[in-house]
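Worked example
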Amino acid sequence: MAERFGYISRVQSFSACHRLHSVHLSDEENRSVYGKCNNPNGHGHNYKVEVTVRAKIDPLTGMVMNLTDLKRCIEEVIMDPLDHKNLDRDVPYFSKVVSTTENVAVYIWDHMVKVLPPNVLYEIKIHETDKNIVMYRGE
């Protein structure tokens, strides 16, 4: 029987606040680049994250990966450190990295690859709003 590959995704929502502000830009440049998202008091989002893995479908279990294991990894990497947090103040990674959704996707990817089996993480997709979606595939 030929090897068959499959993809599974798990969706998880979390809430967090942040301020888009780069230490490499002046206050005026930050206001110009980030607009209202540079508000000194920050702003919040109800993010929706899709974690997609790709692997051979196990001929014995019929699964790409046990969803219970994927859920545990998401809890550890996304929910525990990010949910109901101020990304800039509560997550050390963002003390030096602007907390754009692109960089949140990179953060999640870099931490998910450490807890998932090797070479199975396919994509991180984050819905920041209904209209703004970021995808990252580790490239």
